Amino acid sequence: MPKEAKARIRINKLLEEAGWRFFDTAEGRANICLETNLKITEQKLNDLGEDFEKTKNGYVDFLLLDEQGFPLVVLEAKKEGRNPLDGKEQARKYARALNVRFVILSNGNLHYFWDIEFGNPNLIITFPTSGSIKYKKSFKPNPNSLINEPIESGYIAISQKPDYKNDPSWIYEQTRNSFIKENKLKFLRDYQIRAIQSLQDAVKEGKSRFLFEMATGTGKTLVAAGIIKLFIRTGNAKRVLFLVDRLELEDQAQKNFVIYLKNDYKCVIYKENKDDWKHAEIVVSTVQTLLFNNKYKDLFSPTDFDLVISDEAHRSINGNSRAVFEYFTGYKLGLTATPKDYLKKIDEKELAEKDPRKLERRQLLDTYITFGCESSNPTFRYTLLEGVRDGFLVNPIVIDARTEITTELLSDMGYSVIIENEEGEEEKKTYFQRDFERKFYSEKTNITLCKTFFENALKDPLTGEIGKSIVFCVSQKHASKVAQILNEFAHRFYPGKYNSDFAVQITSNVSDAQQMTINFANNNLNGHTSFKEGYKSSKTRVCVTVGMMTTGYDCEDILNLCLMRPIFSPSYFVQMKGRGTRNYEFVYKEKNELSGIEKTTAQKKNFKLFDFFAVCEYFEEKFNYDEVIPLPPGTGKDGGGDTPPTVLKDYESIIPDPLKGIAETAIGFEGMKIDRKLFERFEETVKADDYIKQKIDEGRFNEVEEHIKQAIFNKPEDYFDLDKLRKSLKLDRRLSLREILEKIFGKIKKFKTKDELLEEEVNKFISIYHPENKFIYIIREFIKAYILDTELRKIIDSKEFASLATNPRFNIKDLKELDGWKDPVVEYVRDYVPLNTFAA
User: Fold this and answer.
1) Half-sphere exposure of 220 (CA within 13 A, CB side)
2) Which is the most buried residue in 77, 244, 290, 540, by most CB within 10 A?
């Protein structure tokens, strides 16, 4: 088939998938015209300086129409071998002749969307819908109005309460602070104003991507609210997408935007407003909600949002998450406290000559490059040191406490024990800090750590009870142990005050864990404290977690952080430590019969960081900050990655483990018919389960899957199991239980075929790596072959390329045509493609 015909077939399919119509249907009139003939008049200047007109005919490949039948989009098609951008100027002439503002450039494999009045063509992987184009047409951005918008401290406050400056309680200084707190008014600090102004300067320089590197606790969400208002108010955006990477942060961000901007703009969480999100100016979603089953392409058009803001930006560009981020056109802003600098200490010129693909992978992962910031310089930076210096953040008091066993675990020699092997012989085994609560277990050590915490924790300044705390553990099993020990100590130290609710395990295997984190921040987890009547502080004092409360979690009154685990990632450590750096004023209001209400306050001056595994010492003395960040290892099951470590036999110590040393350091500034019936019965069973329905509505699929495995699978009534359900559906690939549940509860319309999933992987690869047009076809074929053909993977991975001579899917000639694209494809498949999904 000629390459031009192939391109046309793919373009036709993409248009239909986006809702465009070649023929009149029940849904509406045809809105695609083919090869429309135009007379194009060109003004030219000859050598004598005289003006004359030249008229010639032109043919628009596809002309997309609006509801009234007027031209809306010019689609210029090129054959497979041509770069779509080759048709850019030709498409511009057609668009101007038809008074059309929007252009799509495509060769069937690679596609660009272009608003010819503003900026450059943007790479897209699906075509925009008619509704999305209509939305886009409804406003015209004006960068100058954004650049010249004055930003002052009351920029958000005036949206919260437009007349606040005229209120007597504001005018009088004596009542101003109370007025601000009662109305929850938010005023921008000087550095937050500078952050917004730095974006204005970047827009003035023609940039469309920005990165704010700001320490935890410095108000990134408030700054984001200011940026959102700036874009919408000045007409440079009508709708904004705010992406987060955790459920608790989704709820937290939406509530904050409502507090800051509800009088001007509507903010919704996407999964709670799937039918009317288009009526909101601000849409909040987790990346995972959009990424699962590649929903983002079915739910949104590339042009639905004019500004995309990524919270915890260093995570939004990792793996397939990047495909979501890059899917949308428009401005992009990243917010992070810990950007990933994959180009630090890299000689880019030398690496480009030695291994250009490795350099390209580093560039793709590098937070600064992704957001258009060269040389590791963000659009704006505000550090922890600056925050402490300016009085907005606090530093920790480090409690370095080591037991006799942990001291040896931390040493170069490790902790050695004599154990009996399977042959009954004694042998020596050595464990190190990474083995704690993974291969080496010690109840006595955990008891000592908890006792040390109880005896040294900072107390709430107004009640004297242990201040609100977070304990970070090695695993969910470890967290369960620690929570139990802490509650036993609480019963001993504070009899009658707690009923096994002093410490609560908050991990992903615990029901309603996300809500618990919210309740803890709102000071009502298991009710309020019994130490002081009327004092608003959580009865539960300690949250024991593994990784749920590490990034972006706001709980200002945290007084203690406990590291009952070793940490080796600097960004992870910074994020964990950042949970305690926020400033806070403790307030208690008490009614006095004579003088009215009396208020007692106390200022948070610092917090304690319990370091049981010398984490601070490691990052202070041993971690190599000049070390080149290693690229993420392959995670696929068909190779890739290092030799697996030696598996040690588990060992549980029962000897006492007293505290060996403790040091306190204050930190200064520095699924035949019967088979089909099986699936129908399963569908009826899960739909009748109220627990399942509730959890599905809450998006808690992990809990539903676990419940089904325990309560429904392999029971005598039906003997349901996942393998039988897969066979009953007769699909050409392996289904996950989550996909089956999504189909049953209407979250997806159909199960995607193997070919559809393969095409999606190809599109994601293209959107991330942007290969030249001449390589698109061969890359497409190689990705599909490498995913589907186990033998081909073995040949490629072992580099026995001569065996390709007998491979029906991909031969030596095809390999040569890849011209260096083999390794990026292999790395992508290993890292991000679940091969089991494509198995029959």
Assistant:
1) 31
2) 244
Query: What would the pLDDT profile of 312-324 be if each residue is shown by its tens digit?
Result: 877 766 666 788 8
Amino acid at 387: G
Cα Rg of the chain, angstroms: 30
Task: Assign a CATH topology to domain 3-133.
Answer: tt1808, chain A (3.90.1570)
DSSP H helices in 141-182:
143-147, 157-160, 168-171, 173-182
State which of 38-47, 135-144, 725-734 shows the largest mean pLDDT. 135-144
Beta bridge partners of 459: 466
Instruction: Determine contact, residues 576/436, Cβ cutoff 8 Å.
Output: no
Average pLDDT over residues 143-153: 95
Start-to-end CA distance of the chain, whole Å, equals 30
Containing 309, the helix (H) or strand (E) segment is strand 307-311
Q: CATH topology for 144-151+188-338? A: Rossmann fold (3.40.50)
Q: Which residues of 691-710 are buried (b: 16+ CB within 10 A; e: fewer)?
A: ebeebbeebbbebbbebbee
Angle at the Cα of 214 (from 211 to 220), degrees rounded to 5? 85
Type of residue at 22: F
Helix H, strand E, coil C: the string for 7-48 is HHHHHHHHHHHCCCCCCCECCECCCEEEEEEEEEEEEEECCC
CA distance 180 to 794: 66
Residue 14: which of 46, 59, 62, 56 has the closest Cα? 62
Using H for helix, E for strand and C for coil, what is the string for 643-683? CCCCCCCCEEECCCCCEEEEEEEECCCCCCHHHHHHHHHHH
Q: How large is the average pLDDT for residues 448-466?
A: 94
Position 547: which residue type? G
- Answer left, alpha or beta for residue 54, where phi above 0 means left and psi between -120 and 50 means alpha: beta
Q: Given CATH 3.40.50.300, say whether it is the number of domain 396-419+426-628+657-664.
A: yes
- State whether residue 778 is helix, strand or coil: helix
More confident residue, 224 or 508: 224
Q: Structure tokens of 241?
A: 């997408």
Residue 597: strand, helix, or coil: strand
Lowest mean pLDDT among 170-174, 320-324, 334-338, 433-437: 320-324
pLDDT 10s digits, 532-550:
888 899 999 999 999 888 8
Collect all residues with Cβ–Cβ distance below 8 Å to 710 and sequence separation of at least 6: none
| Lowest-confidence segment of 11-25, 228-242, 251-265, 721-735 by average pLDDT | 721-735
Distances (CA, A) of 769 to 320, 322, 761, 764, 831: 12, 11, 12, 9, 14
What is the pTM for the complete model shown?
0.78
> Residue 606 in contact with residue 396, Cβ under 8 Å?
yes
The amino acid that residue 179 corresponds to is F
DSSP state of 414: -
Distance CA 433, CA 798 (A): 35
| pLDDT tens, residue by residue, 355-401 | 776 776 777 777 888 888 876 788 998 888 888 888 888 888 999 99
Question: Nearest to residue 124, comparing CAs of 200, 198, 221, 14?
Answer: 14
- Number of Cβ within a 10 Å radius of residue 817: 16
pLDDT at 616: 86
Phi, psi of 314 (to 5 degrees): -65, -20
Mention every residue, 6+ apart, whose C-beta is less than 8 A from residue 400.
Answer: 611, 614, 616, 617, 661, 662, 663, 664, 665
Residue entry with tokens 């590339």: 302
Contact 534, 556 (CB under 8 A): no
Q: Which two tokens stand for residue 751?
A: 């199960």
**Which of helix, strand or coil describes residue 87?**
helix
The residue among 371, 259, 374, 242 whose CA lies nearest residue 309 is 242
The secondary structure of residue 619, as a DSSP letter, is: I
671: buried, middle or exposed (CB in 10 Å: 19+, 13-18, 0-12)?
A: middle
Residue 539 has which token pair? 């009865």
